[in-house]
Specification:
By secondary structure, this protein is α/β, with parallel strands linked by helices. The chain has six helices and 20 strands. Helix 1 links the parallel strand 1 and strand 2. The chain is elongated. Pfam families: Choline_bind_1, Choline_bind_3, Glyco_hydro_25.
């Protein structure tokens, strides 16, 4: 079902949202432009978002990017997060990539921006013209939802023969639309996707970005510096919320997560050495372990003793290549 959306900024003046709500299905509001500086907040942002919330108009946001470096792209993402904090979005956050002179960096900057926005629990999309998408983006940002501008004769009417057909979810078909309640011309868009339904029923899911895997909860939050039990397996997430693989010391114990991130138990073979992890995943070290009437010894660092004669306490013990202790006297010590 197609939906009519408008996108607005301070350039549209003071909008009579009471009137506008009768003609639209939603709005994409500019929250600001450029890096995270308060003087670059959109001057109508606070009023526009407050009115949409008061009147129950579904909305998303966009930020016009001037970023020419990774650090500036990060700042732009923080700019958005500062302004949308405390608000509930029904449409994505869009990275508006159309500033001349940023062509060579805009794709990488969009990825950086998107990583931060998605990590905060929001949907992220990109906005650009059809020409920019074909000559600059070139299909490199398929992970993001697309909002594409292509106007045709740009007379305020939608002309189907100008539809971009780039896989866009929103098509901005006019920049000179007229609407009661808005004194200036306004951008008009047709949306082909039910974002409010999808976003509001967001499911818990694994998400992979350029830094690794993380697990988003239904409310957009994620676990940091802690364990989480997911689909009958334990995972550990670092201080930034990314899934840990390999060895990890948590408090006083070592644990091992395989390539999938799942915590391991029992015997594991890592780097040509055997280790034993108990049912809680804790690595044994400097201790004996008995299995099927056979004794094994886990040395400092967790390494299983094998092919060696080892002094433990005041006695010596021999171990086969399998790690099994060779029995001599009743205690296994050499006599």
């Amino acid at each position: 079902m197609e939906k009519l959306l408008i996108d607005v900024s301070e350039h549209n003046g003071k909008i009579d949202w009471e009137t506008v709500k009768n003609y639209i299905d939603g709005a994409i509001i500019r929250c600001g432009y450029g890096m995270d500086e308060t003087n670059q907040d959109d001057k109508q942002w606070k009023r526009n978002v407050a009115e949409c919330e008061r009147l129950g108009i579904p909305f998303g946001v966009y930020l016009y990017s001037y970023a020419t470096s990774k650090e500036k792209a990060k700042s732009e993402a923080q700019h958005v997060l500062r302004l949308i904090n405390g608000h509930t979005l029904s449409y994505p956050v869009y990275f508006d990539m159309e500033e001349p002179g940023t062509e060579n960096v805009s794709v990488e900057n969009a990825k950086i921006f998107g990583d931060i926005i998605e990590k905060a629990g929001y949907w992220c999309g990109i906005y650009c013209s059809k020409d920019w998408y074909k000559t600059v983006v070139k299909g490199q940002l398929k992970r993001f939802t697309l909002w594409i501008a292509e106007y045709g004769s740009n007379n305020g009417q939608m002309q189907d023969n100008y539809k971009p057909n780039l896989g866009e979810d929103i098509w901005q078909y006019s920049s000179v639309g007229k609407m009661q309640g808005i004194s200036e011309t306004v951008d008009l868009n047709v949306c082909y996707r039910n974002f409010p339904l999808e976003i509001n029923r967001m499911k818990e899911q694994w998400i992979k970005d350029e830094k690794g895997w993380w697990y988003r909860h239904g409310d957009g939050t994620y676990t940091k510096n802690n364990w989480e039990y997911i689909n009958k397996k334990w995972y550990y997430f670092d201080k930034n919320g990314y899934m840990v693989t390999g060895w990890k010391k948590v408090e006083e114990y070592w644990y091992y997560m395989d390539i999938s991130g799942a915590m391991q138990t029992g015997w594991i073979y890592v780097g040509e050495n055997w280790f034993y992890l108990n049912g809680s995943g804790q690595m044994y070290e400097n201790t004996w372990y008995k299995e099927e009437e056979q004794w094994y010894y886990l040395k400092a660092g967790g390494y299983m003793a094998r092919n060696e004669l080892l002094k433990i306490g005041n006695e010596k013990f021999a171990f086969l290549d399998s790690g099994r202790m060779v029995r001599t006297n009743a205690r296994g010590a050499l006599v």
